[in-house]
Structure formats: C-alpha cells, structure tokens
Amino acid sequence: MSAASIYVYYRIVPAGLEDFACLARLHLAVVAPRFEARWRLMRSRTEPSTWMEVLDNVQDTEAAIDALRANWEISGLRRFLAPGSERHIEVFEDTESCA
Fold this sequence. Notes:
alpha+beta; globular
C-alpha cells in the first residue's frame, strides 16, 4: 500500500480567526504524530474563510480520518465553522513514477 495524503477543507466564520488558527494547529500537532505524518494548515488566497488541513505520508488513512474527526470534536473547533458549512475529506494516493 502506498502512502496517501488527507485533505480536509471547510469554511470558517471570520470572527476569532487567531483563536481558530492556534487551535487548528494544535489539533493537527496532536493527531499527525500518531500516524508519523507531516501536517500543514493552509488558507485559500482567494477565499480567506476557506481553510485546509493536510496530513501527508499517511499509511493508515481510515484510522487517521477517524482520529481527525474525533479530535476535531474534542478540540471545540466546530464552533468556528461557517453556518451551513461542513468539513470535506479527500484522500489522494501517491502514483507510481515512470522509469
């Protein structure tokens, strides 16, 4: 099985941006080491309310997704989601390179 990357994107409310960013970084810093994954927190250049969590080099994607969901709820980050917004999760696998 090849390594995969998990992308979680969502929209947040503009208020409390600094608090959100700190908590979101902590959320990823807690989950990523459990899966020996590299993490990033990103924000859209064109739509500043759209954010993305990225975990790279994940072997057990299902367990990592479950951990991301559970920790998100425990962390209290849900309160920052924009009304009507949900988190969207995508998994991308590395491809074989050409020889």
